[in-house]
Predict the 3D structure of the following.
Amino acid sequence: MHQDVETMRWEGDRLWLLDQTRLPHVWEGVSCRTADEVATAIRDMVVRGAPAIGVSAAFGMALAAQAAAGQPRAEALAQLAAAGQRLCHARPTAVNLAWGVARMQAIAEATPGEGADLAAALVRGAEAMLAEDVRINRAIGQHGLAVMPDGAQVLTHCNAGALATAGYGTALGVLRAAHAAGRSLHVWVDETRPFWQGARLTAWELVQAGISATLITDSMAGHFMARGQIDRVVVGADRIAANGDTANKIGTYGVAVLAAHHGLPFYVAAPLSTVDAGLAHGGLIPIEERPAEELTHVQGRRVAAEGVRVANPGFDVTPAALISGIITEAGVLLPPFETSIPAALRSGAGKA
Ligand code: MRU
């Protein structure tokens, strides 16, 4: 079964991360020995994808706890709180980051003893999160079978695969599960400008998995929908508001509008940890602004006219009204999401 790509590995006193900025040409890792090094790796997108940065942040907290292992309890907790703040500031949109940090803080507070006890508990907690993420993704994949019939022609945007998680993937987990179940499917892969997660990462994962795939530019999706060559969409998510509005990679909203225009179902696949029940609607989701160079330069070479202004939001928000279903570890949630999301959260799925 799938375990051919390792996004991250805990090595006892450091977190090894596959450097995703260099894929698919260079396969090298980066070792993080401190929480701040993990925060830098998240900010620079060495590791990216909402679940992957959530689990990485948890290991960042474990590293902070190891650094405070010689401290009395109160000092260790204070150092953890400070490290948690720095990790949370690395990237603003994916709620999984704050969720991973909060979960480690809760473990620390619930663990009796001094700094060394907290460090041991946080290492165990982060390792459990890593294993749990893969289990959750596999459950998402199984639930996704209900909306991935034989012969499906599926568009996906960005990378919500093994590389974006601790393994297997969310949107790509659904495609992996359908493929493993013997369903014939064809995947259309948006290249995903400006960071090329589709061309560099998703295309690679699908080729490795032996799943039939065609790479297109983001602007071609409407053309292939109009010709009947795409019949459904599945994407990941970075934050889902209480009403189902969903932030995901920039361009997702446009894909959803196109899908609605052509009467095609549009699915979001995500763990329940991506739900931010405290946000009433998607307009409240903070959107990361990325460096201008991602647009003005291609492979280090300037392609845009000097002096032009640049806007580069990393994410957009797809309104719940355009979403046919949210595929989670608790099943496929259907509209109205104001009802189905709280019910899924109450079911306890996804909790350790
Ligand atoms: O900027 P990125 O590459 O971190 O954005 C990733 C996405 O938008 C993914 O679709 C999302 O995080 C879900 S990953 C399972």
Notes: The first strand starts at residue 8 and ends at 10. The longest helix spans residues 115-144. DSSP finds eleven helices and 16 strands in the chain.
